[in-house]
Specification:
This protein is of the alpha+beta class and 301 residues long. It is 17% helix and 34% strand. It folds into two domains: 161 residues, Immunoglobulins (Immunoglobulin-like, Sandwich), CATH 2.60.40.10; 104 residues, Immunoglobulin-like (Sandwich), CATH 2.60.40. The relative contact order is 0.16.
């Protein structure tokens, strides 16, 4: 059976993480990097139009880590991974400062925002600077479980909570406005080969919106090969774009670029299915860097 893009991603993660874990403590410490610019973030959670939720807590987890959330103990795992946390008031509103990125917003209506709850999770990037082998293995096991059984997030919900995906946080201010819990705003992209069959190779595909925003899909799986589900997208035009992709394990190390045909579509607010044709070409990182390099400065006179 062909391996999926997620299987390749797991193998890639394991190789990189194991390399980092094997580095010796004797290596000179690097100069601490400047922290990302903090962004003022606000929004309001609604049960339906004009009906806000009341109380509870919101957790922000990197979108790319959605496959690490198990069906059993899902909210406990969300709390472990949370990069930022905020309380929700009686009008359904929340405000906080956090680093930029693309996040899952997970709403737990039953957890009070105590000082301990409001801290970043112990398995978040905000807290963990270097993964242990145990942490690496835990992440790999959770990703494998998701690859076999499917995601714990289904139709905007987890057991005991709600999920809103692809929350793009950009400095200096991000205002999400009113967000209705449980709304189904999805695009299902099916990637086919030139013969019209689902692709049988990994391809890192994203959606690019009108402002250059990049939306991430659910991980592909053995259950639906070649299918990329993008959740909580906004009404606008999108283009399906390819990103440099590593081949499946055992197929060499040469990265390639997925090339997408029939990439553009307009999302109008209802669940949508769109098909694209995907081929691939060798990706030359050095050549790409030269192509994107700024032009040389004009000689001084």
């Amino acid at each position: 059976m062909k391996r999926t893009a997620q299987t390749a991603a797991i193998a890639s993660f394991l190789a990189l993480a194991s390399l980092g874990a094997a580095q010796t403590a004797a290596k000179p410490a690097a100069t601490p990097a400047k922290p990302p610019e903090l962004t003022k973030v606000s929004g309001r959670l609604m049960l339906e139009k004009d009906v806000p939720t009341t109380g509870g807590t919101v957790f922000f987890v990197f979108q790319k880590r959605i496959s690490e959330i198990p069906a059993d103990g899902s909210l406990e795992r969300v709390r472990e991974m949370a990069e930022a946390v905020a309380g929700v008031d009686k009008e359904g509103s929340f405000t906080l400062e956090m680093a930029p990125g693309n996040f899952l917003l997970v709403y737990d209506p039953f957890t009070d925002p105590t000082p301990e709850v409001l801290k970043p999770g112990p398995d978040s990037q905000a807290v963990v600077k270097k993964l242990t082998r145990e942490q690496i293995q835990k992440r790999i096991d959770l990703m494998k479980q998701t690859n076999e059984k499917g995601l714990a997030v289904v139709d905007g919900a987890l057991p005991g909570g709600f999920v809103i995906e692809n929350r793009l946080v950009r400095p200096p201010i991000t205002e999400f406005g009113d967000m209705i819990l449980g709304e189904i705003n999805t695009v299902k992209v099916t990637a086919k080969d030139q013969a019209g069959k689902p692709i049988d190779f990994p391809a890192d595909l994203k959606l690019r919106g009108k402002n250059g925003d990049i939306y991430e899909s659910h991980p592909t799986s053995l259950l639906e090969p070649g299918v990329y589900l993008f959740a909580d997208v906004a009404p606008q035009r999108y283009d399906v774009i390819g990103r440099p992709t590593k081949p499946e394990p055992g197929a060499g190390e040469q990265m390639y670029m997925p090339l997408v045909k029939d990439a553009a579509f307009i999302y109008e607010g209802k669940p949508l299915e769109h098909s694209v044709v995907v081929t691939r070409e060798v990706y030359d990182e050095e050549a790409e860097a030269r192509k994107n390099a700024p032009p040389p400065a004009a000689p001084k006179r």
